[in-house]
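Appendix C reproduces, verbatim, an entry submitted by the partner laboratory led by Prof. M.T., so that reviewers can inspect both the input and the predicted structure.
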Amino acid sequence: MRSGGFGQSALLLLDAIEVLARERIDYAVIGAMAASIHGVVRASTDADVVLSLGGRKGSDLEQQFKSAGFQTEFRLGGIDDPIPAVLQLTDVFKNRVDLLVGLRGLEPDAFSRAIEVKFQGTSMRIISLEDFVAMKVFAGGPQDMSDARNAIRAGRDALDLVLVRRLAKRYGRDASEGLEALLREG
């Protein structure tokens, strides 16, 4: 494992990405790390990733991570939870990576739109600007809306408005209305 102390969840993420690549699992980094690519750098003590498992089971994936030396905890979401399950990875330093096993409303093509970013000599896949904004307005919390606002401002010239509106619509009326409110802010 690359991490050597607390506050190095990004390094733990690189170790997790190696396992995902070996298992041929599509993923996209989301959360604060994606926010730093699409808007404003902000602090976070964990790293977040959304997965496309296809027909595979999260519990099978958990075994792969345990075998690779990760501490794991697999939790199923409730019936109304937009996240079906989370596989939480930790190390001895309490660094954490949350692997979201899907997200209700996330378009499967989000994984093919993810962008490659180099970090510490390794390539990682970051959720696209449009998927990031749509996902954040769907989440709708104060930090999420701030992340979406900052991403829209920072990427205004590159933002595909037709695509982001279509993606927000997949998440429902509240997400679409939240997006439109942010777009009106200029």
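The first strand starts at residue 26 and ends at 30. Additional entries are available on request from the coordinating office.
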